[in-house]
């Protein structure tokens, strides 16, 4: 049984997720912790729950989702996972960070490159990788058919969708990704986005104006 813990970090109010199961192994999804108190909030949770961080995974590599990558990697030495097509954003992290007023530590190079159909395994749990480009070329979603949830990064939000005016964004690809990869999931699938509250596929099909 996967437990999902949500933290909201940095000025962009980015959602960082820690997923753990009964084995005590966990993965950290999109560590956006930047300030010292944010970093300690994340590491204190891992320590207090006696978790072992096995994987750091980025749903995509925009600066607000990778600010804590170097911290998590240096502390726990996990495998670092991302989609091949977003690696360029990691190598340019310092330059992109300065645009938004951040001076991040250089994030580590991914050791685990994810693609459509890959599986992310930790403890007794596994997540399916869905490639959902558009917000960024390497955006992915982490889907659990067993527990009926999907972590979607900045592809889909409650009542909205991801922006496409950033480097290599593509509005048509984003809509295609949403309609072919996400809206085809079961209606009661719980959606955990990169910002804002969770939602469901059913709720977005009914009321999201960008999906009309």
Uncertain ranges: none
Q: Please bin the fraction of helical residues.
A: 25-40%
| Secondary-structure element series | EEEHEHHEHHEEEEEEEHEEH
Outline, from the CA principal axes? globular
> Which class best fits the helix and strand makeup?
alpha/beta
Largest sheet: 6 strands, mixed
Strand order of the largest sheet: 1-2-3-4-5-6
Number of strands: 14
Radius of gyration in whole Å, from Cα? 16 Å
Number of helices: 7
Summarize the structure in words.
The longest helix is centred in the first third of the chain and has 13 residues. β7 and β8 form a beta hairpin. Helices cover 26% and strands 30% of the residues. It has 212 residues and is α/β, with parallel strands linked by helices. It has a 6-stranded mixed sheet with strand order 1-2-3-4-5-6, with helices on one face. The mean pLDDT is 97. The protein is built from 7 helices and 14 strands.
In short:
The protein is an alpha/beta fold. It has helices spanning 36-48, 63-66, 69-76, 87-91, 93-99, 171-182, 201-207, and strands at residues 3-9, 14-20, 25-29, 52-57, 79-83, 112-114, 119-122, 125-131, 140-144, 149-153, 156-157, 160-161, 190-193, 199-200.
Can you give keywords for this protein?
single chain, about 210 residues, six-stranded mixed beta sheet, globular
Explain the layout of strands and helices.
Layout: E1 3-9, E2 14-20, E3 25-29, H1 36-48, E4 52-57, H2 63-66, H3 69-76, E5 79-83, H4 87-91, H5 93-99, E6 112-114, E7 119-122, E8 125-131, E9 140-144, E10 149-153, E11 156-157, E12 160-161, H6 171-182, E13 190-193, E14 199-200, H7 201-207
Parallel strand pairs: 3-4, 4-5, 5-6, 10-13
Antiparallel strand pairs: 1-2, 2-3, 7-8, 8-9, 9-10, 11-12, 13-14
